[in-house]
């Protein structure tokens, strides 16, 4: 009987100690997400972003015709890019997708270095290119980045026209060209 | 024989009393849908933050019959932490309690406090909210921020751990 009492006393003390112990138990849930690949590009200003050039004869006889940009507008290229880990970089290409340049005329595009509010590994501009109907790189080494949206963000685009060959230059009506920009994994 | 009977009763009794009484159970998933990661305009980053579309639900249950019967208003608190699998230090995961759930097997409002504002989930446990008794289906909403296109296209994963303590 005494043994039972002693055991009961120990048990009671044990229960008392145990009941003051803080228990914990947990469960968990997995939180997952995937950042997608992104390749977006646009030209700012988004509306009315045409550039106009006029070629007028010189006032002086014997002098070359003058090329004037009448629109006085600066265009900007904005982009957002997120690459897969297996990719190194992207490039941005420009080409004349619609319209044909009049004979004797060359259209050039010069791209500035990045400025603006964006972050990341921005692309590097190439040298001034002569636009044709074949895509040519204007920005290379675009990494994971965003330029910021709107004018004064990204790379400014400066167009110019040169009369490359007077011997085949003829008077013509208005010519319209469309420039297509493509961001590419290549 | 008397000793054996006593031992069996003692063991059974100690199981009833000393066995862990409260458990936390989770339902639902914490996956952030891909459609949330959109960019409205070229040149922009992802949105600053996104909220999980679906909620996860936490229930505090008591599988200890004796404790459940004698101590219906067990006090408890929930701590929350995360254990990263693939993560980035710039990412910020937050959680908040979006409702009170409901009492298990009895009428009336559930007794639950705290956790109704978003709080950052870190790798160290912090108190999330506390309550009394068994409460089922407490909805938890998650918010994610700090992600950017500058991180590239990647998968991320962390385990959110909810721990119930039988204390306040």
Oligomer: heterodimer
Number of strands of chain B: 12
What number of structural domains do the residues of chain B give?
A: 1
Fold-level CATH name of chain B: Immunoglobulin-like
Shape of chain A: elongated
Structural class of chain B: mainly beta
Q: What's the order of the H and E elements of chain B?
A: HEEEEHEEEEEEEE
Give the overall shape of chain B.
Answer: elongated
Structural write-up:
The complex is a heterodimer of chains A (186) and B (168). With 186 residues, chain A is mainly beta. Chain A has one domain. Helix content of chain A is 10%, strand content 44%. In chain A, strands 2, 5, 7, 8, 10, 12 and 13 form a seven-stranded antiparallel beta sheet that branches. The radius of gyration of chain A is 34 Å and the shape is elongated. Chain A starts with a helix and ends with a strand. The model of chain A has no long low-confidence stretch (mean pLDDT 87). About 5% of the residues of chain B have low confidence. Chain B is mainly β and 168 residues long. Chain B has one domain: Immunoglobulin-like. In chain B, the strands form two sheets. In chain B, strands 1, 3, 4, 6, 7, 9 and 11 form a seven-stranded antiparallel beta sheet that branches. Chain B has a four-stranded antiparallel beta sheet with strand order 8-10-5-12, with no helix packed on it. Chain B has two helices and twelve strands. Chain B starts with a helix and ends with a strand. The interface between A and B is large, with 51 and 57 residues. Strand 1 of chain A pairs antiparallel with strand 12 of chain B, so a sheet runs across the interface.
Quickly describe the structure.
The complex is a heterodimer of chains A (186) and B (168). Chain A is mainly beta. Chain A has one helix at residues 2-20; strands at residues 24-34, 38-44, 53-56, 66-69, 75-82, 90-98, 105-111, 119-120, 124-125, 129-130, 136-142, 145-146, 155-163, 178-184.
């Amino acid at each position: 009987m005494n043994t039972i009492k002693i055991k009961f006393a120990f048990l009671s003390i044990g229960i008392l100690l145990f009941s003051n112990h803080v228990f914990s138990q947990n469960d968990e849930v997995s939180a997952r997400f995937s950042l997608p690949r992104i390749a977006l590009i646009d030209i700012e200003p988004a509306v009315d972003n045409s550039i106009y050039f006029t070629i007028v004869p010189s006032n002086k006889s014997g002098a070359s015709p003058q090329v004037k940009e009448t629109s006085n507008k600066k265009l900007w290229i904005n982009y957002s890019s997120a690459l897969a880990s297996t990719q190194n970089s992207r490039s941005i290409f420009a080409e004349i997708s619609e319209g044909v340049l009049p004979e004797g005329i060359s259209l050039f595009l010069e791209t500035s270095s990045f400025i603006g509010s964006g972050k990341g590994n921005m692309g590097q501009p190439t040298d001034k290119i002569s636009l044709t109907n074949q895509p040519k790189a204007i920005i290379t080494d675009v990494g994971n980045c965003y330029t910021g949206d709107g004018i004064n963000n990204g790379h400014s685009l400066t167009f110019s026209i040169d009369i490359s060959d007077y011997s085949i230059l003829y008077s013509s009506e208005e010519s319209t060209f469309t420039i297509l920009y493509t961001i590419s994994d290549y | 024989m008397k000793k054996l009977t006593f031992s069996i009763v003692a063991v059974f009794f100690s199981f009833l009393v000393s066995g862990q009484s409260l458990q936390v159970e989770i339902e639902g998933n914490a996956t952030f849908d891909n459609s949330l990661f959109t960019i409205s305009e070229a040149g922009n980053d992802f949105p600053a933050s996104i909220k999980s579309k679906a909620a996860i639900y936490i229930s505090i249950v008591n599988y200890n019959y004796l404790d459940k019967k004698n101590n219906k208003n067990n006090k408890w608190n929930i701590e929350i932490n995360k254990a990263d699998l693939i993560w980035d230090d710039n990412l910020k995961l937050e959680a908040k309690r979006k409702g009170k759930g409901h009492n298990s097997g009895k009428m009336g409002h559930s007794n639950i406090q705290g956790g109704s504002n978003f709080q950052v989930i870190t790798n160290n446990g912090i108190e999330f909210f506390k309550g009394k008794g068994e409460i089922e289906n407490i909805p938890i909403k998650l918010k994610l921020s700090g992600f950017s296109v500058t991180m590239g296209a990647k998968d991320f994963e962390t385990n959110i751990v909810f721990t119930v303590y039988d204390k306040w």
